[in-house]
Design a protein that fits this description.
3 helices, about 0% strand, about 70 residues
Length: about 70
Amino acid sequence: MSIERAVTAFAGVMVLISVALTQLVSPWWWLMTAFIGINLLQSSFTGFCPAAMVMRRLGVGRGTTGGCCGK
C-alpha cells in the first residue's frame, strides 16, 4: 500500500470513529473531526503531513505518484 493511500485510509477511519463517538459519547468529539479536517487542509498547502512521517517510520511503502504525503 502506498503512503498516500495509507494516510487517506487513516484519515477516513479517524473521521468515522469521531462521528461515532460524537453520537455515542459526547458532542465534544466534533473537535476531533475538526482537527482532522484542519490537518488535511494544512497538509494540502504546506506538504507537511505528520501521519505520513509516522507511517514512513513504521515501514509503509512510498507511492510512485509523489503527492503531498509522499515527499
